[in-house]
Design goal:
Layout: H1 6-16, E1 20-23, H2 28-36, E2 42-44, H3 46-54, H4 64-75, E3 82-85, H5 93-106, E4 110-114, H6 133-145, E5 153-158, H7 161-164, H8 166-178, E6 183-186, H9 192-201, E7 206-209, H10 221-227, E8 231-234, H11 237-256, H12 269-276, H13 278-289
Parallel strand pairs: 1-8, 2-3, 3-4, 4-5, 5-6, 6-7, 7-8
Helix pairs in contact: 4-5, 5-6, 6-8, 8-9
Length: about 290
C-alpha cells in the first residue's frame, strides 16, 4: 500500500471521522470551497459530471475519459481524497479494470461500481434494473484486481433495494463483500432499520447517500453515527444551490437590465481571491520580475 497515496489518505480520513462526510464537488473551485469548510474527503458524482460539465442527464451518457478529466482538474486543486462515481465501470471485466487504473492515475482515492444494467438510471428514479448477483460479484472482483495501488478503496453499490427488496439487496452486498469490496453503498434506503439490516449483515463499512429530492430522508450525522454508518455522501447539494442562484442572477440581469439588485447575493472579488490564494500568486509574479 503506497504510504501517501490518495487511497491511503481516504482510509486515514475514514478512521479519523465517523461517519466521514463527503460533499459533492462539481469542479476544482467547488472542491477548494469544500476544503475551506473543513471537510476531509470529497465526492465526485456521475450526475455532477454529466449535468455540470456536459449538460447531460445522468443516464450513462458520459465516458471514462470525461470523468477522468474532472478527476484530474479536482485532484489538481486539493489534496483531499476523492470518491468517484464509476457507474457500471464502462464495460465488462477488462474495461472495469482499466477504469480503476485510470481513476488512480487521474488522482482518485476510491470509486464505486454498481449492479445496475449498462443502460443505467439515476438511483432514485423508477425503472431501474439490476444484473444477476453473480455478474455484480464479477464486477467487484474485476475492480479489485484492477488496482495498481492497494490503498485504493473499492465501494460496491447495490441498487437492488428499490428493485427486488431488501433481502436481495443484502444478498448482493454480502456477495460484493466476498468479492473483495472495501465498502458497501446501500442505495435508496428509506429508513434507519434498513441501514441497520445492512450493517448487521456485513463485516465492512456501509455508506449512505443523502441526495436531495430522492427516496432517502435527510438523516443527520448523529442519527447515522448512532447506528454505525461509516460514510455519508451529499452528491449534488452545493450544485443544486449554485444552479438556483445562477438562474436568479441571469433572470435579474435579463429582466432588469442590470445586476445592481443581485450583487449582494454574489461572492465578492476579495472573497474569490481569498479562496484562490490570488495575492500569493501575484506576489510571486512580482518577485520573479522585480516588481513591487
Amino acid at each position: 500500500m503506497t504510504t501517501n497515496s490518495a487511497g491511503t489518505r481516504l482510509r486515514t480520513a475514514m478512521a479519523a471521522e465517523k461517519p466521514l462526510q463527503l460533499p459533492g464537488v462539481i469542479n476544482a473551485y467547488a472542491a477548494m470551497q469544500a476544503e475551506r469548510a473543513g471537510f476531509k474527503a470529497l465526492y465526485v458524482s456521475g450526475a455532477g459530471v454529466a449535468n455540470a460539465s456536459y449538460g447531460l442527464p445522468d443516464l450513462g451518457m458520459t465516458s471514462l475519459d470525461n470523468v477522468c478529466e474532472d478527476i484530474r482538474r479536482i485532484s489538481g486543486a486539493t489534496e483531499l481524497p476523492l470518491l468517484v462515481d464509476a457507474d457500471t465501470g464502462w464495460g465488462a471485466v477488462f474495461n472495469i479494470q482499466r477504469t480503476v487504473r485510470e481513476f488512480i492515475r487521474a488522482g482518485a482515492a476510491a470509486c464505486h461500481i454498481e449492479d445496475q444494467v449498462q443502460a443505467k438510471r439515476c438511483g432514485h428514479r423508477p425503472g431501474k434494473a439490476v444484473v444477476p448477483v453473480a455478474d455484480f460479484g464479477d464486477r467487484i472482483k474485476a475492480a479489485v484486481d484492477g488496482r495498481s495501488d492497494a490503498g485504493f478503496v473499492i465501494v460496491a453499490r447495490t441498487d437492488a433495494l428499490a428493485v427486488e427488496g431488501i433481502d436481495s439487496a443484502i444478498e448482493r452486498a454480502v456477495a460484493a463483500q466476498e468479492a473483495g469490496a472495501d465498502v458497501i453503498f446501500a442505495e435508496a434506503c428509506t429508513t434507519i432499520p434498513e441501514y441497520q439490516r445492512f450493517i448487521a449483515a456485513l463485516r465492512i463499512p456501509v455508506l449512505a447517500n443523502l441526495t436531495e429530492f430522492g427516496k432517502t430522508p435527510y438523516f443527520t450525522v448523529e442519527e447515522l453515527r448512532a447506528i454505525g454508518i461509516a460514510m455519508i455522501i451529499y452528491p449534488l447539494s452545493a450544485f443544486r444551490a449554485m444552479a438556483k442562484a445562477a438562474a436568479g442572477v441571469y433572470a435579474a440581469i435579463r429582466e432588469e437590465g442590470t445586476q445592481r439588485d443581485v450583487v449582494e447575493r454574489m461572492q465578492t472579488r476579495m472573497e474569490l481571491y481569498e479562496v484562490l490564494g490570488y495575492h500569493t500568486w501575484e506576489q510571486k509574479i512580482d518577485s520573479l520580475f522585480g516588481k513591487g
